[in-house]
Amino acid sequence: MSDFSLHYGHWWWVLVMVLIASWLLYRFVAPRSWHDWTGAGLVQAFIIALYAEMYGFPLTIYLLTGFLGIELPLTGFSGHLWATLLGYGLAGAMLEMLLGGVFIIIGLMLVIRGWVQVYRATLQGRLATQGVYALVRHPQYTGIMLAVFGQIIHWPTVMTVLLFPLIIYAYVRLARREEARLIEQFGDAYLTYRQHLPMFLPRWQAWGGCLRALFSPQPD
Predict the structure, then answer these.
(1) Quick one: average pLDDT of 36-42?
(2) Burial 26-42 (b: 16+ CB within 10 A, else e)
């Protein structure tokens, strides 16, 4: 039996990874309205599609080889499609894992750090403007987008690539609705905050501060 065959069919591992990723999603980005559930539902579909193909059944590889006639070496690393299609081999696959992992870790850190700041601000009845919220207005949504993008670098599939722009669209719309609610709640304070910070990506001069905010102790 080839290492390609041995790599797949592990549905118990699919279940474990889906449960862990879903717990992280709903623990730190808990949906509060049906609009929130739309974004979370798309991310949930992304998670299921990703791990079902990563450890269960390699649908994308069979579609590429069976229907499009693309010749792929059927090895345990074939799922690293960018490296496989471009002929970068094992070294390229390892680079994909490293690069994708960087985006995923930064994304998860933004989600968790953002959750901490929102939790503290909610307890104190104030607007969250410290930590990662001093860099962008929606760091948790940025984190979700980065984590999803990192997984597409690491292990792309037809379904996850198709879901990615839908996730971006859903969270952009969600951010705009959330801002309308925050303007009603905090008035000029939020308008001033919004005027001075970008929505999702820090300004170029703030990237150093972004790394410090991710890996330094959280401000109270």
Answers:
(1) 87
(2) eebbeeeeeebebbbeb
Does pTM surpass 0.85? Answer: yes
Q: Mean of the per-residue pLDDT values for the chain? A: 89
Task: Determine phi and psi for 142, rounding to 5 degrees.
Answer: -60, -40
C-alpha closest to that of 55 among 12, 14, 84? 14
Give CA–CA dist 26/11, Å, rounded: 22
Closest CA to 129 of 181, 176, 195, 177: 195
Burial class (CB in 10 A: 0-12, 13-18, 19+), 24: middle
Q: Are 8 and 56 in contact (CB under 8 A)?
A: yes
DSSP string, 70-112: -----STTTT-HHHHHHT-HHHHHHHHHHHHHHHHHHHHHHHH
Contact 111, 144 (CB under 8 A): yes
Side-chain half-sphere of 70: how many Cα atoms within 13 Å? 14
Q: Is 194 exposed, middle or buried (0-12, 13-18, 19+ CB in 10 A)?
A: middle
Distance CA 124, CA 122 (A): 5
